[in-house]
Predict the structure.
Amino acid sequence: MRYTPHFLLEDAAEVKRLIRENPWATIVSNTAAGLVASHYPVILEDTADDVISIVSHVGRPDEQLHELGQHETLVIVQGPHGYISPNWYPEGQIIPTWNHVTAHLYGTPEILSDDENFRVLGELVDHFEQRMPEPVSLQLDDAGARGVARGTVGIRMRVARFDARLKLSQNKGPEVVDRIIDALESGDVYSNPALAEEMKRVHPR
């Protein structure tokens, strides 16, 4: 990402929050055959505050296409984002922008054993099912679920480094920020409440 010091996100806890709230990730690998990208859900492992470790799975043969475990991989996590109109700026300011919360995570994935992969698959299901009134679990059909799991490969990536941005109008004055938040929360055009909430986190009123 473009180097913009005033938008840098360097707090590992905030990156973890971004992953937790936006688990649909893009996995990018630079392989012998060229660039490969795939999209899968990821969840965080329980680690020390300054350590980021994610687990997921890929469908076969994506682990071969990505050459997982053989080199560094990029995982992109994208939070709320949206267009910011100069209509919300003072008169005479005409350059629009795009606000966003984004993290690039780098590391070399570890291929999980079949048993650990099945455990991670179960955790993925349990993680997303916990909000449901009657959560479904792989334990309801262990044998059938294990059969399906054979078509997947589990991965763990301990993040060696990350490059993250919170670009949320930090370069604008309080009155302009308030107008942008109001427009994103309740405007008729480009309404984006999730982005407004992110802005309120860095611009407390």
Notes: The first strand starts at residue 8 and ends at 9.
